[in-house]
Write a structure and sequence with these properties.
about 525 residues; alpha/beta; Dimethylsulfoxide Reductase, domain 2; Rossmann fold; 18 helices
Length: about 525
């Protein structure tokens, strides 16, 4: 997030797009509720009528995969009415004229035809956001999990720069992370192209810096993303995989392909706290420790680094992750001899500029928001004050592109997947909680009442859902939360695995799969 969570309370307009905030990030949702109570306009854009839409001043139900068109339409209105901040554009950005030429083509009327949102609502959303004193954007995986995920994010950045709602209190572009330490994993170099602190591996100075710090020879070649690893396993170019805290047999698209790839590994090692469907395929399972069984830090969605303290000893043969990594590394020939997580944090601070002033001692209390470059620095509440990290903010001229897969006579329904409030991700933890499991023990398919009548089904009946990759038999929940021709399925349940159906086509840059839209057929199950 460019801004902190608490700042949402003082925004005058909040655009929530592609985020089921109350289900997936309820504490963030409370800040949005407080903003509304203070008089803020809440605009929700989502193909599904999520709970937050009930609280919205304006709800825009756009068609799946039309986010770029919708935001371009809002920016067209802003430019046409002179609501943009020209001084900000001139002083702090570049690429504006090329961007303008593209956006001028996205009139509200044209965008209405693409998205299904009325031209009047597009104009209203543009007015409220552009003319707010402090406009904030909140998004989640409804924006990123598309073959145009990077385009979607860049378009939201365009909107914030066009209106000057960036680099100030209670503004910004604020992605809500999908898991509790995804931000921290990325910060620590858990990506194939960077060292800790997002320092590119193919920059010679970075390579030399980390070779000196770690006393080891390092490669300057970018590694593989998850789709690349699976392709490598299938082709035989990747021989061994270590999977830590991840459950691709439920979470990755086209699960049949995932299973085939993993079974092709000469060595599959899985480190987790439960025996997941992925761990069941492993040659070796390493029992890791839960958050309550280890010391360390988490970095949350607002860049806040917080201490995690051991409350109980690891159960059975479980061990802290860092100790497992250390032993594996030593056995592979690179000796690690850290004495504690505090020592590891000290090293992180020494090689990661944005964490330069962070130590265990300074994390007592509420933690610190990076960048925190020195021991005297208080942390950074919001980013890009005065200038962007790259110097000038770059406008991108983004054209709308439809989803990778289209409906047709054989597969006439759109399927979208997501989360529900009871369960978390692949259910590794929540489905092992008797209370939560009892609350929602099985998956379901949301179907619009008009479609349900045509199929001859009622709530609780089973239907067969098939895509070009697989099929699932699942019970129906008849609801107007989804529009006619669209169905929704939560992905938490291995017994009715939504990712048997989803399309593995991915964004060409980020390589994130298109979980949010694919084509399916439905029929009543006998």
């Amino acid at each position: 997030m460019t801004n902190s969570i608490v700042e949402l309370e003082n925004a005058d307009c909040i655009l929530v797009i592609g985020s089921n905030t109350t289900s997936s990030h309820p504490l963030v949702a409370t800040r949005i509720f407080r903003a509304k109570a203070r008089g803020a306009k809440i605009v929700v854009a989502d193909p599904r009528f999520v709970q937050l839409a009930n609280k919205a001043d304006l709800y825009m139900r756009h068609k799946l995969g039309t986010d770029v068109a919708l935001i371009n339409g809002m920016m067209n209105v802003i430019l046409s009415n002179g609501w943009h901040k020209q001084d900000f554009v001139d002083e702090r950005t570049e690429g504006f004229e090329e961007f303008r030429k593209v956006v001028e083509q996205y009139t509200p009327e044209r965008v209405s035809e693409i998205t299904g949102v009325s031209a009047e609502d597009i104009r209203t959303a543009a007015d409220w956001y552009a003319n707010a004193k402090a406009g904030s954007i909140v998004y989640c995986m409804g924006i990123t999990q598309h073959t145009t995920g990077v385009d979607n994010v860049k378009t939201l950045a365009n909107l914030s720069m066009l209106t000057g709602h960036i680099g100030r209190e209670s503004t910004g572009v604020n992605p809500l992370r999908g898991q509790n330490n995804v931000q921290g994993a990325c910060d620590m170099g858990g990506l194939p192209n960077v060292y800790p602190g997002y320092q590119p591996v193919n920059v010679a100075a970075n390579k030399e810096k980390f070779e000196k710090a770690w006393n080891a020879k390092l490669s300057d070649k970018v590694g593989l993303t998850i789709p690349g690893v699976l392709e490598g396993l299938s082709a035989g170019s990747v021989k061994a995989v270590v999977i830590v805290g991840e459950n691709p047999m439920v979470s990755d698209p086209d699960v049949h392909h995932v299973e085939k790839a993993l079974k092709n590994a000469e060595l599959l090692v899985v480190q987790d706290i439960f025996l997941t469907p992925t761990a069941e395929l492993a040659h070796v399972v390493l029992p890791g420790a839960s958050f309550a069984e280890k010391d360390g830090t988490f970095s949350n969605t607002e860049r806040r680094v917080q201490r995690v303290r051991k409350a109980v000893e690891p159960v059975g043969d479980a061990r802290e992750d860092w100790k497992i990594f250390q032993d594996l590394s030593t056995r592979f020939g690179y000796k690690m001899e850290y004495g504690s997580p505090a020592e590891i944090m000290a090293e992180i601070s020494s090689v990661t500029p944005s964490y330069g002033g962070i130590s265990f001692e300074r994390l007592e209390g509420d933690g610190l928001l990076w960048p925190c470059p020195s021991a005297e620095h208080p942390g950074t509440k919001f980013l890009h004050q005065g200038k962007f990290s790259r110097g000038r903010g770059l406008f991108h001229a983004i054209e709308y592109k439809p989803p990778a897969e289209q409906i047709d006579a054989e597969y006439p329904f759109w399927l979208s997947t997501g989360r529900i409030h009871v369960h978390y991700h692949t259910g590794t933890m929540t489905r092992n909680s008797p209370t939560l499991h009892k609350e929602m023990p099985e998956g379901f398919l949301e179907v619009n009442p008009v479609d349900a009548r045509a199929l001859g089904v009622k709530s609780g009946d089973a239907v067969r859902v098939a895509s070009r990759r697989g099929e699932v038999v699942i019970k129906v929940d008849i609801t107007a939360r989804v529009t006619q021709g669209t169905v929704f399925m939560p992905f938490h349940f291995v017994e009715t695995c939504a990712n048997l159906l989803t399309n593995p086509a991915n964004d060409p840059i980020a390589k994130i799969p298109e979980y949010k839209v694919c084509a399916v057929q439905l029929e009543k199950a006998l």
